[in-house]
Design a protein that fits this description.
The protein folds into 6 domains: 125 residues, Bulb-type lectin domain (Agglutinin, subunit A); 133 residues, Agglutinin, subunit A, CATH 2.90.10; 118 residues, Hepatocyte Growth Factor, CATH 3.50.4.10; 55 residues; 87 residues, Phosphorylase Kinase, domain 1 (2-Layer Sandwich); 187 residues, Orthogonal Bundle (Transferase(Phosphotransferase), domain 1). It is α+β, with helices and mostly antiparallel strands. It has a 7-stranded mixed beta sheet, sandwiched between helices. The chain has a 5-stranded mixed beta sheet with strand order 1-4-5-6-7. The N and C termini lie far apart (65 Å). The structure holds 2-acetamido-2-deoxy-beta-D-glucopyranose (10 copies). The site of one 2-acetamido-2-deoxy-beta-D-glucopyranose has 7 residues, from β20. It is found in: Membrane.
Length: 781
Amino acid sequence: MALASGLLVLILSILFVEARTQPNQFGKIPLGSQLSPISETRSWLSPSGHFAFGFFSQGNGFAVGIWVVGQPNNTVVWTANRDDEPVSFGATIHLSGEGKLFLRTEQGNENLIANVSEVADSASMLDSGNFVLFNGSSAIWQSFDHPTDTILVGQNLTFNDKLVSSVSSSNHSSGRFILPLQTDGNLVAYPKKSASLSVDAYWSSDTFQGDKKGLSLYLNNQGFLLMDTVSTKPVLLARSSYSCNNKTTIFRATLDADGIFRLYSHCLENKTSWIVHIEWSALNDQCNVLGFCDFNSYCTGKGTNADCSCYPGFAFNDPSEKFSGCYKNVTESFCTGTDEGEMYDVITMENISFERYSYSVLDTKKENCGLSCLEDCLCDVALYINERCEKYTAPLRYGKKDINASSIAFFKVQTTPAAPPMGQTVITESKKSLIVFLAIAFGAVTFLCFVIAISTFCVYRDRTFLYEKLSGIISLAGDFTLRSFSYSELEKATGGFAEELGRGSIGAVYKGTIPGGDRIVAVKRLEKVLDEGEKKFRAEITVIGQTYHRNLVRLLGFCVENSRRLLVYEYLKNGTLADLLFHSDKRPIWKERVRIAMEIARGILYLHEECQACIIHCNITPRNILMDDSWIAKISDFGLSKLLYPDEIRSSMALSQSRGHLAPEWQNNASVSVKADIYSFGVVLLEIICCRSSIEADVSAPDEMNLSSWAYQCFAAGQLDKLVKDEDVELESLERMVKIGLLCVQHDPALRPLIKNVILMLEGSKDIPTPPSIAPFCISS
Ligand SMILES: *[C@@H]1O[C@H](CO)[C@@H](O)[C@H](O)[C@H]1NC(C)=O
Ligand SMILES: *[C@@H]1O[C@H](CO)[C@@H](O)[C@H](O)[C@H]1NC(C)=O
Ligand SMILES: *[C@@H]1O[C@H](CO)[C@@H](O)[C@H](O)[C@H]1NC(C)=O
Ligand SMILES: *[C@@H]1O[C@H](CO)[C@@H](O)[C@H](O)[C@H]1NC(C)=O
Ligand SMILES: *[C@@H]1O[C@H](CO)[C@@H](O)[C@H](O)[C@H]1NC(C)=O
Ligand SMILES: *[C@@H]1O[C@H](CO)[C@@H](O)[C@H](O)[C@H]1NC(C)=O
Ligand SMILES: *[C@@H]1O[C@H](CO)[C@@H](O)[C@H](O)[C@H]1NC(C)=O
Ligand SMILES: *[C@@H]1O[C@H](CO)[C@@H](O)[C@H](O)[C@H]1NC(C)=O
Ligand SMILES: *[C@@H]1O[C@H](CO)[C@@H](O)[C@H](O)[C@H]1NC(C)=O
Ligand SMILES: *[C@@H]1O[C@H](CO)[C@@H](O)[C@H](O)[C@H]1NC(C)=O
C-alpha cells in the first residue's frame, strides 16, 4: 500500500515537473495564492522561467524550496525548514489573505515558511533566484537572507551566517559540514560534529589578517567569488572561466554534501537544458575533508572517489551507511596486564594518519612499538612516527590513508579464541581468576623490587658521584624515569632558593637549573606536608611520576631528606591560566579559550581514567593550570591531595585556599569522588568563558558576585551575552560552553557528567542536556 502510493507520487512528480508550473507574467504573486504538489500550480516561476519556488520531491514526499528549472535535473538552491519531515501530496503552500506565507500539511498543521512579524501584500520569485515578500515596495523577507547550502549571484553571506551542507544530492536536510563566515572575517569549513576549533578546520578563505579581514562573501555576475574586506579592495577567492558562448548563465557556490565548497556555472544550451560545470573546488580530495569518515574509520581513495573503512578490530555502527563511524568490536575487555598476549594481537597498517592526541610517547624502536601497545591495557593503537611511538585510546577521528604520512600504525585486535567444545564460560572464568592472580603476584613483585630499589638507593645515597650516575635515576616500569635529588643539589640548582616563581597552597616554587642537562626546572618546596614518613611520600610520588600526558605538568624528580620534601617539575615559562584570564590585556580570544578548556578536560580524563591508578586532583583552579611555550594548558599539582588533604583534616585548610572551586561535598563531609574534580572543572570552565574569577566582590550587582549562580541566571533569562562583555562570540558556541559549565557545577555529584562525556560535549559530538537549576550559595549541612 505504502509502496503503491509512493510509486504514484513518483509518477505524478515526474509527470508534473514541467507541465504543472506556470510562468507568472507580472512577476507578482498576489495574496490568496496557493500551491499544491498535485495541482496545476506546483510552483511559482520567476519571469525568465529559470527559477521556481514550490514543492519538489524528496524521499517519498515533498519539500518546499527554490530550484533551477531544467534538464538534466532540477538543482535545489534553497530549502524551507529543511530539517522537517517531507510532506505528503495533500499538503499546500499558502500566501494567505492575511499576508502570511506558510505550509499546511495534510494533517492540518501550519508551519511558517517566512517567519516575520510584518505582513506582506505581495510576493515575487525573482530572476536572481531570490524569493521575496513585499509590503508596498519594501522587502520584508527574502530567501537570500536565510541561505542553506548555496549562495547565488546577488546574495551576501555576512558575520554569523553560515552554509550547511545537505545530507546528499537528493536529501536536502542539514548534512555533516558547515561553512560559517566567522566574526574574525575568515570563512572556514568544519565538520558539524566538532567544536569548530582550528584543529577541526579543513579549509579557510584566509581572510582575517590586516586589511584582508573579510566582511561579506558574494558572487558577482561574472561568476567571481569575492570577499568584501575592511579595505576597499575585495579578495578574489575563485573565478569562473568556462565560456558559455554568451548564453544565459547561472552561477552558484555550494557547500556540497561531501563537505567541499564548489563554484558552479549552469549554461543554458536550449530552452530547458543546462550544461553544468564545476568552475572551482576548495579541495580536490574528499579525504582531506576532516570528518568525511566518522569516528574510528578512515578515508581512502583519491578525488571524489573516497571511501570509508573501519580500522582493524572495529565494525561499522550502521553497516549500510559508510559515514556512520565504527565501534570497537570486542567481546571482553580485560585490563590485567599479563595474559593479554594470548588474547590480543596487533595488525599493522602503513601510511595512516589521524588526529594525534596521544596519552603517551615513547622513544623506542619500531619493533617494540606494537609490543608496547599490546602490553598496555589502555592502548588501542600505537603509531610509530618520526622515530617515536605514540599510544592512543579510541575513539580516533579524522583518519585517512595518506601516502605522504610515513607512519606505521599498530592496532590491537582481539584474537578469536579457539572455541572450546563445551563449558566455555567456566574456562573463561577460571582463566579470569588466573589472570587476576598473576596480576596481583606480578604487582607485588614489582612493588617489592621498587621498595628494594628505593631502600638500596637510600642507604647508598651519599656515596660517590659514580654511584649517583648509575642509580640516581630510578627506573620504574618500562619507559618512566624519575630522578631523586639531594637537598644540597637542589639548593645549588636554585641558587639557594633565590628566584621565587610563585607561592601556592602547597608551598613556594623556585626556578632552577639542573647541572649537566642545563634544563630549567621549577622546584616546589612542600611546606604543609603532614609527617607521613618517607614511604608514603615515595609511594605517592611514584604514582605521579608514572603520569605522562601532554596536558599534565611533568614531574622530573623529587627530594626527600629528613622532614624536607621537594618536587622538581618541568618549567613552563608562560605562567598560569589565572594570569592569562584575569588580565584584560592578555585575555585569549574565544576559540583559544575553548581549546584551553578542552586541554584541561583531556588532562583530567587522563588522571581519572587513563593512568594506572585513578588520581583525583581535588584542587583544580586556574592557578594550578600552567601554559607551556606553545600555550598548551597543563595541569599541575595533581596527585598531592593524599599528602596534603587526608580525609580527617581536609576541610579547613583546603577551604581557605581555593574558595569557589571546591565541590560542596567537601563541606558536607560526604565522600569525595572524581565528581569533585568535575565541579572544580565546571567553575574553571565558567571562569574561562567569562574571563573573571569565580568569586568577585567588585561587581556592578550583588547577583554577579558568585559566578556559577550568575551564569545560571543569565542562562535561564536567555541573556548569555552579558557573560562575555563587549566580546564577539558565536552564540551557539557560547551557549554550549555555558551549559556544560552549569552541568558540571551541579550540587548533586550524581548530576555532574563524567569527564569523558564532558569532552564529547566540548568536541560537539554529544548532545548537551539542559542543565537543572543551581541553588545560589547553597551550603547544606
Ligand atoms: C534525510 O536525512 C536525514 C538525516 O540523515 C534523515 O533523518 C531523513 O530521514 C532523510 N530524509 C529522506 C527523505 O531520506
Ligand atoms: C539526475 O537524477 C537522477 C535520478 O534522481 C540521478 O540518477 C542522476 O545522477 C542525476 N543527474 C545529475 C547530473 O545530477
Ligand atoms: C519565529 O522567530 C521567532 C524569533 O526569531 C522565534 O522565537 C520563533 O520560534 C520562530 N517561529 C518559528 C515557527 O520558527
Ligand atoms: C506594511 O507594514 C506596516 C508596518 O508593519 C503595516 O502597518 C501595514 O499594514 C503593511 N501594509 C500592508 C499592505 O500590509
Ligand atoms: C549585498 O551587499 C552589497 C554591498 O556589499 C549590496 O549592494 C547588496 O544589496 C547586498 N545584497 C543583498 C541581497 O543583500
Ligand atoms: C560574446 O559577446 C562579446 C560582445 O558582446 C563578443 O566580443 C564575444 O566575441 C562573444 N563571444 C562569443 C564566444 O560569442
Ligand atoms: C535541446 O533540447 C532538446 C529537446 O528539446 C534535446 O533533445 C537536446 O538534447 C537539447 N540540446 C542540448 C545540446 O542539450
Ligand atoms: C566482531 O568480532 C567477532 C569475533 O571477534 C566476529 O565474529 C564478528 O564478525 C565481528 N563483527 C563485525 C561486524 O565485524
Ligand atoms: C604528497 O606530497 C606531494 C608533494 O608534496 C604532493 O604533491 C601530493 O599531493 C601529496 N599527496 C597527498 C595524497 O597528500
Ligand atoms: C607509505 O607510502 C609510501 C609510498 O607512497 C612508501 O614509500 C612508504 O614506505 C609507506 N610506508 C611508510 C611507513 O612510510
